[in-house]
Amino acid sequence: MHQKKLPTMPGVTIVTPAYNSVTYIQKTIDSVLNQDYPNLEYIVVDGGSTDGTVELLRSYGDRLKWVSERDHGQSDAINKGWRLAEGEILGWLNADDYYLPGAVSSAVAYLNEHPQVGAVFGSLAFINDEGVIYGYKDPHDFNPRAILEYPTQMISSTLFFRKVQLASCGYLNRDLHFAMDYDFYLRLAKVGEIHYIPRIMAHFRVHSASKSQSQVSRHLSEMIQVYRAHGGRFRLSPFWIRVAALFLWSRIPESLRKLFRQVLSRLEIGEVTIERPK
User: What pTM did the predictor assign?
Assistant: First the structure.
């Protein structure tokens, strides 16, 4: 799909889904509001928090838009935000992650210079509960045709895409609560080119309370559901090796996993790359 070239300063809308997220969300919010891109809309969709999240959102005044009401989960919240969005470029940033300076402007510049591209994403750093880096995601050999077998090539915290893509690929599947990003990437790749930008755009927090860490069995079950729905088969492949590795990792006591992340934070290697991306 060939896209029209964007205006010099197209509107960008970032959506953050939240629920009882007061522990980390202030860092998330500040990372968006402190971006150097001027035409930026920020929407936080809260699921009815009772931990002080709403009071924190209120303290930002008109610097952001927010709504707090019961919803049907994270996918539903993100969709709600995207439907409210006025920007021509969209993204979503979870309430325990945060952008690095220049993330938005670098994504817009790339999309402006490459009108045939529908979406871009970048590198990221993994951080632990305390915010210490323990590894990097640097998919320098990204292959959009291999997303089915390599679902973690992309992570939503660094994804920016054109709003017109939603008309073709559809919104997030609100029946999915763990693998909705994987399903969305596969559909997004079918309606436009996805390119990788070799720049660290965000920090992705891995902690024991996050859904992907605390409910691994449900996460893997949804990944398999999505894999099969998009034509994946039960055979020896990178996908099934990844699933097996995640299952075995989940069997390790959290205290040992946390210790492992602390060791990696000293080495700065993590699960992905030894050399820090530029």
Answer: 0.88
- How many other β-carbons are positioned within 10 Å of the β-carbon of residue 129? 17
Query: How many other CB atoms are there within 10 angstroms of residue 183's CB atom?
Result: 24
Q: What is the 3-state secondary structure (H, E, C) of the chain?
A: CCCCCCCCCCCEEEEEEECCCCCCHHHHHHHHHCCCCCCEEEEEEECCCCCCHHHHHHHCHHHCEEEECCCCCHHHHHHHHHHHCCCCEEEECCCCCEECCCHHHHHHHHHHHCCCEEEEEEEEEEECCCCCEEEEECCCCCCHHHCCCCCCCCCHHHCEEECHHHHHHCCCCCCCCCCHHHHHHHHHHCCCEEEEEEEEEEEEECCCCCHHHHCHHHHHHHHHHHHHHCCCCCCCCHHHHHHHHHHHHHCCCHHHHHHHHHHHHHHCECCCCCCCCC
Closest CA to 91 of 110, 68, 119, 72: 119
Sign of CA dihedral 109, 185, 47, 209: negative
CA distance 250 to 219: 11
Return the exposure string of 68-82: e unless at least 16 CB atoms fall within 10 Å of the residue's CB, then b.
beebebbbbbbbbbb
Extract the tokens encoding 218: 């449900």
pLDDT band at 217 (very low <50, low <70, confident <90, very high): confident
CB 10 within 8 A of CB 89: yes
| Percent of the residues in the chain that have a pLDDT greater than 70, as a whole number | 88
